[in-house]
Write a structure and sequence with these properties.
Oligomer: single chain
Strand order of the largest sheet: 4-7-6-5
Shape: globular
CATH architecture of the largest domain: Roll
Helix content: 10-25%
Radius of gyration: 15 Å
CATH superfamily of the largest domain: 2,3-Dihydroxybiphenyl 1,2-Dioxygenase, domain 1
Amino acid sequence: MLFSVILRFGNKNFANLGSSFFDTPTILTSYLEFTHHKNTHVGKSPTKDNLLAFYIEDKQEWLEQIKSMQEAGFILVPSYNPYWDKHGKTFEDIDGYRIVLQNSSSEV
């Protein structure tokens, strides 16, 4: 699995979800934490081109991650930049922030 929840915590005002990204089952290569301030309105994303892009080379893994995003309630949308629609899927959350799951290797 590309994305794995490794922690959940919070207090009366904040809820946090930590997610890790693994190249191998035992080596943590990256970590991204999402936070939510309860009872606080978060503004919309500044533009539709502000996004996180994740490159997933394995087709089956990519399809599984797409399903996971949809089951979590993310909305599948056309990308602002048509580049991402060629080999990827763009998802938007309720605040307008976007994530691209790209079925290719990174050029970086």
